[in-house]
Amino acid sequence: MMRSVLLAAVLSLSAAVAASASGDNVVLVAVNKVGLPHSLPGFCQLNTSVSQVWEGKTFHSGQALVIKVPCSAGNSFMTPANLIQGQGAHLFAADVLQRSKQGLARIDDAGNLIWQPSTRSYGPWGVAYGYRVLDGAVVPAVPDRMKS
Q1: Measuring CA to CA, which residue among 99, 101, 129 is closest to residue 26?
Q2: Which of 9, 91, 124, 141 lies 20 to 30 Å from 103 when distance is taken between CA atoms?
Q3: pTM value?
Q4: Are 101 and 135 spatial neighbours (Cβ–Cβ below 8 Å)?
Q5: Which of 146, 115, 136, 112 is nearest to 22 (CA)?
Q6: CA–CA gap between residue 26 and residue 13 (Å, rounded)
Q7: Residue 112 and residue 62: Cα distance in Å, rounded?
Q8: Which residues pair with 102 in a beta bridge?
Q9: How far apart, in whole angstroms, are the C-alpha atoms of residue 107 and residue 130?
Q10: DSSP secondary structure of the chain
C-alpha cells in the first residue's frame, strides 16, 4: 500500500514538472555516476556531462548536469523508443540506470525532465521524451516475463 502511494506521488510529481516546464532542451548525455534514493520507487540522481546539444541554448557540450529520473526496483529492460503519447513519466529500473553510460534527455532550463514527446526526431534516437537509456548492449530489450 505504502509503495503504491509513493509510486503515485513520484509519477504525479513528474507529470507536474512537465506541465510547468519552461524552455525546451534535448541533450545527449554521458552518465558518470548514479545515486539511488533511500527507498524505491523514487528519483535516481544521474550525474552526467552533456555530450551533444540537439536543441536549446541553456546547456553546452562538456557541461556537468544532474538529472533526476524516476526509478524503481522493477524488472530491467530498455525503455521503448516509441512510447505512447500521454503515458506520462516512465519508471526506470535502478540497475539499468546504474549500468547505463549514455542517455537522451528532454529537459527544461532547470534540468527537469519533460515527459511529453518532442515534435521532431533527433538523429538516430528519434523523438525525445523525458529520459531514455541508449545503451542497448547492457540491458535486455524486453522484460524477463515476456521472453519465451
Answers
A1: 129
A2: 9
A3: 0.73
A4: yes
A5: 112
A6: 21
A7: 18
A8: 30
A9: 7
A10: -HHHHHHHHHHHHHHHHHHT--S-EEEEEEEEEEEPPSSSSEEEEEEEEEEEEEE-SS--TT-EEEEEEEEES----PPPTTPPTT----PEEHHHHHH--EEEEEE-TTS-B--S--SSB-GGG-B--SEEE--TTTS-SS-GGG--
Residue whose C-alpha cell is 533527433? 122
- CA-closest candidate to residue 125, choices 11, 26, 23: 26
